[in-house]
Each structure stands twice: as C-alpha cells, then as structure tokens.
Amino acid sequence: MSVEVEETITRVHHEEWARVVAALTRRFGDLDIAEEAAAEAFATAVVRWPADGVPPNPGGWLTTTANRKAIDRIRRESKRDDKHREAQMLSDDPPGPLGVIDDERLRLIFTCCHPALAMEARVALTLRMVGGLTVAEIARAFLVQESTVGQRITRAKAKIKAARIPYRVPSAEDLPGRVSGVLAVLFLVFNEGYLASGPDTDPVRHELTAEAIRLARLIRGLLPGDGEVAGLLALMLLTEARRTARVSASGELVSLDQQDRGAWDKAMVAEGHRLVRERLAAGVAPGRYQILAAINAVHTDARDVRDTDWSQVVALYDQLVRIDPSPIVALNRAIAVAELDGPEVALAAVDRLDDQLAGYHAYQATRADLLRRLGRSQQAREAYDKAIALAGNTAETAYLTRRRDQLA
C-alpha cells in the first residue's frame, strides 16, 4: 500500500467513522450491527482502495459498503419469525428525521449518553461510536484494562437494545435534564483530541476536537440560554485556538509559556472571550465549564506570559474547587499558585495529592518542573522518569525527555 493511500484511509477513517456509524444506526436501529458493518467497510477499503484507487466520494462509498455488509449480516442471522423486522430493515427508504435537529451524529451521541447508562459506560460508548477510538485508546485514556472498556461498551449496547432506547435527540422538555451528561462526554472527547493518550496516534487529534466543537455548537442551538453549554463551547474554542502552536516542527509539545501567541487563532479567541463575557453579564453563578472557560480567557488575554493575571487565575480555581473538589483541579490550582506564591508553596500542595495522583503523568510532570525550579535536580530527574513512563503521547514524551536531559 502506498503511503498516500494509507494516509488517505487514516484521514477518511477520522472524518467519516461517526457519519457511517450514525447512518447505519439510524437505518438498522442496532449499534452492534452499525459498528461491525462500519468496521468491515473500512477493512474492505484497506484491501480495495490500493488496487482500485480511492473513490471520488469516500464517505458515500463506505456508507454504501457498510449498508451491504449490515444487510448480509441480517440475512445470515434472521430467523423465520423475524421476517417482518428484516423487511423493515432492508427497506431502501430510511425513516425520516427525528428530534429537534436533523443531525445523525447528534442523535447518536444522545443515544450513547442516555441517563439509563452509567457515566463510565456513556463515555466509553461515545468515544467508540462517535469518536472512533479503539478500545485500546479508550483504555489508555482512563487508565483501565482493555477488557474493562470492552465489557462497558458491550453492556451499554446491550442495555440500549434491551431498554429500546430511541435513536433521537430528546424532546425540548427533556433536553435540560439530559444535557449535563452529554457535555461531560463531549468534554472527554475533546480532551482526547487535545492531547491524545496513546503513542500510536497523532499527539493532537484535530478531527476529535473539531467534532466536539461542532456538536457543542448544535447543542447551544438547542439550549441557547444554558450557561454550561456556552461555557463548554467557550472552553473548547479558547483551547483549540492554541492548537497549531502546541506542537513544534520536530513533534515536541510546546508549553503554554513558550507558545507563539501570534499563531493562536484570533477568531476563536475572540468568540471564546465573547461567550465568557456574556455569561459574566448574565449574573448567574457559574458552573464548572464556565469557570474553566474564564481561566482560559485570562490566559489567552495576556499578550505575553508575563502579563498573565495569576491572582485572577488562582481566584477562579478557588471557585472551581468549591464545586469540583477533585485532585485534578487541585493539581492545576497548584500550578497557578507556583506563579503567584513560588514553587515551594506549590510543591507542598502537589505532594499532598500523591496518594490520589501518583500514577498520573501530569502529576509527575508538575512535580518534576517544581523540583527543577527549586534546584533539586536529582529528585526532578526521578519525577521526569516517572512522567515519561506514564505519558504515552509522543509529543509530551519528547518534551519531558528534553527537560529531563537539560538537568545537570
């Protein structure tokens, strides 16, 4: 297979996976059939496209091929008393639009994020069905065994089938109660794209961040007055604005203080700031995503890292800790405290999180940086070694390795 065709198949998989799965789910009403037929279609493309050439409409080719694979499977598995259902499935005319917005991927995410499913199952299922991540990638993202992720996905699909969970966007009155779970999953999808968890993929996966932003915009259209929807969209935009500056030409992660701020996407920054200002003007107590967006607004408002208002960042983290007292939030607050009160104060706060975060690469990387700043080179080296072993992401590993090797 030529490199060009291989790269095309990889790109098309990133761009078209969710569309193909969503189209098949809509037609056949079965996530298992949709996923397996989509996977078979992509496997067929790997064999056919190098010989026959890439089709003019790769997405259409994949959807047509996947439909045929699904029909073949249904015919093989159908029983006599299922003939009526089979006839419906094989109809050439799929059902009409369902829900408030006619977007198949949005319906797919609301199906995967149904409140009848446990949150961990919603996340795993959405990352697989909407994000197209492999089971191995999902397992790395959440520091669990592949078998655990596989079981979560299998059980979630079985529950959707058994409970006859509909493939649709909820009605207007049901939306507010359903949206928080969807936002949580979209945030995780975005994070996997922002900094991929595995070594065998691009360090930054733009197709995932772009899809998360697209879906967040659709949900904002459904709930324009929801502060957390606006907050999550603002957070994503202010983070995505920095994407091109986050990885160097040599493939190394570039930390926020070293990024070329002139390379940030000005339109995204402006839109994110406008959303943050709108929420502040609303006079309503902010939620988690709104506070995170406000923190990012402070960072992106500074023309130079030295202009960052660290006291405001710490104050925002203090607000966030009150509504989300997680160790990750405490770690990020400590990073800001280091800029305000010095690395020694921050290190004391970080070390209190050891029992909860010792196996988390960002914890070890933060300790390494603080120890380096305090001149404790040997301890910093040990922390860098731990962070490198845990990181996985190639760009982050390269950055941490260089920082470690700079120590005397």
Automatic annotation (TrEMBL):
InterPro entries in alphabetical order:
DUF6596 (IPR046531), RNA_pol_sigma-70_dom (IPR014284), RNA_pol_sigma70_r2 (IPR007627), RNA_pol_sigma70_r4_t2 (IPR013249), RNA_pol_sigma_r2 (IPR013325), RNA_pol_sigma_r3/r4-like (IPR013324), TPR-like_helical_dom_sf (IPR011990), WH-like_DNA-bd_sf (IPR036388)
Keywords, comma-separated and alphabetical = Sigma factor, Transcription, Transcription regulation
Which intervals hold domain DUF6596? 178-278
Which residue intervals define the domain RNA polymerase sigma-70 region in the entry?
19-79
The Gene Ontology terms for molecular function here are: DNA binding; sigma factor activity
Keyword Transcription attached? yes
Any idea where the RNA polymerase sigma factor 70 region 4 type domain is?
Answer: 109-160
Question: Quick check: keyword Transcription in the entry?
Answer: yes
Q: Which residues belong to the signal peptide in this entry?
A: none
**GO biological process terms, semicolon-separated:** DNA-templated transcription initiation
PANTHER family listed in its UniProt record = BLL6612 PROTEIN (PTHR47756:SF2), BLL6612 PROTEIN-RELATED (PTHR47756)
Q: Which family does it belong to?
A: Belongs to the sigma-70 factor family. ECF subfamily.
Could you identify this protein by its name?
RNA polymerase sigma factor
Gene source species: Kribbella turkmenica
